Hints:
- The protein folds into two domains: 1-99, Formyl transferase, N-terminal domain (Rossmann fold), CATH 3.40.50; 105-212, Formyl transferase, N-terminal domain (Rossmann fold).
- By secondary structure, it is an alpha/beta fold.
- Strands 3-2-1-4-5-6-7 form a seven-stranded mixed sheet, with helices on one face. The chain has a two-stranded antiparallel sheet with strand order 8-9.
- It has seven helices and nine strands.
- α1 runs parallel beside α6.
- 5-O-phosphono-beta-D-ribofuranosylamine (GRF) binds next to α1, β5 and α6.
Amino acid sequence: MARLKVGVLISGRGSNLQALIEACAAPDFPAEIALVISNQPDAAGLDRAKAAGIAARTISHRDPVFETTLNATLRETGVELVCLAGFMRILGDGFVAAWSDRLINIHPSLLPAFPGLDTHRRALAAGVRISGCTVHFVRPTVDAGPIIIQAAVPVLGDDTERRLAARILAVEHRLYPMTLRLIAEGRVTILGGRVEIARPGEIPPELIYPGG
Ligand code: GRF
């Protein structure tokens, strides 16, 4: 079976990239990472890619034709799906349109709550009892777009931003590979701006409600 060719865009530490690398290492996983691109030359995630023998390169966002180069590089590599994994640039409408429904992102909140930066600080300030993470298709508006899958994480009384972030990140590392599997298996479709998943009952409930 041909595996779905994935490009991963990063800007930093790349722990979600690592989770995707480890998932793709399983012989029966239906996707493979063809290329990792960072907009930051010193992103630790680039070393993770190289250590796994995956092509990795930097394309600076200061490059005046940044998105054109990004797009061309992904296409030359035969990438079929782009995963944003801690990619800290807002992609322009042209790039988003070019990869429409083939561009996904992971965000550390239960969207549409707390899009953008400082997610955990705002979640704690709002006093929410449950937070989590969301994988969604990318649209021109930041952290909007059809929601594919979410996982819920409790917010505890003595949480700091750091503790909450760590609790959510551990779940992100399971949720993103699961989403990639669902897409690669052809089980994810967008209908009327909402996502339908085929055979949702096969998704382990402990992935979606890990505290429950
Ligand atoms: C994650 O929390 C992700 O949800 C957000 O940026 C962070 C990236 O972390 N978009 P890492 O680089 O994958 O470790």
